[in-house]
Amino acid sequence: MGQLLEQVVNGLQLGFVYALIAVGYTMVYGIIKLINFAHGDVIMVGAFVTFFGLVRGIPWPVAILVGMVTCALLGVVIERLAYRPLREKGAPRIAALITAIGVSLFIENFSSLRIAFGPDYRQFPAMIPRAQWNLFGVKVSSVQVLIIVSTLILVAILQLVVYRTKIGKAMRAVSMDMDAARLMGINVNQVIAFTFAIGSALAAAAGALLAAAYPQIWPYMGIMPGLKAFTAAVLGGIGSIPGALLGAVLMGQAEVLTAAYITTDFKDAVAFALLILVLLVRPAGLLGKAGPEKV
């Protein structure tokens, strides 16, 4: 029983990292119905910026904050240069989707150049002393506590922003009806830029926490976590923040329990099979609402 509970904690650790990434996917989709495939690469940029801060002796909370601010600006730049021109010209949604894939490939390949981060793997320094405690027979590490507590704090702040602030109210209005929101005097472009900024900042935090748990970073490190988080967002119902959190936790549990009790080679297959099974029963995801058009 103790071993099972330890694996559940491991699943929470992984699921909470996915949750921070999935929220970014689902927020952008909820506002402009775009799957921002470049979001996975923002994870990598956040991890690298945090890494450079740590190796220069900056305290880890400040290093993560610098990474979040940097990625927030990166998200705004991506939206302004890549997606807004298409939106203003009324381009078909497939054009925005292909652009997102192009932006993702550009960030990955540019980051691997020597003038940027370089192609090599780098050892991510420990942000906090590694310790382990025994809580009622379950071993919990300091990194797991860091990830779970940090995620809960960030999600709580996000909830406050979305449901208790003026910009959050504007985000919800734009997600319901963009044209009506514009007629009511809401600056839609500003709201969309803010959505990209906050989603990218959360992705940067996820990148730093992911690197803290699995201490190696490289320019292509965001591909698989980004794909898993996107899958989690779809599993929970893309466009729904609670759905993204639920989907991410389920993905993390499925992946870790499969690796622990079946085989590590099968963990990705089980995670994606879970998505297929859920969508067969609920095509809009666990907490999503069915609509006339999904993608």
Automatic annotation (TrEMBL):
Domain of life assignment: Bacteria
Keyword Cell inner membrane attributed: yes
Cell location: Cell membrane
Keywords linked to the UniProt accession: Amino-acid transport, Cell inner membrane, Cell membrane, Membrane, Transmembrane, Transmembrane helix, Transport
Membrane topology: Multi-pass membrane protein
TM region positions: 12-32, 37-54, 60-82, 94-117, 143-163, 184-211, 269-288
Family: Belongs to the binding-protein-dependent transport system permease family. LivHM subfamily.
Name by which UniProt lists this protein: Branched-chain amino acid transport system permease protein
Biological source species: Symbiobacterium terraclitae
The organism's taxonomic lineage, starting at the top: Bacteria, Bacillati, Bacillota, Clostridia, Eubacteriales
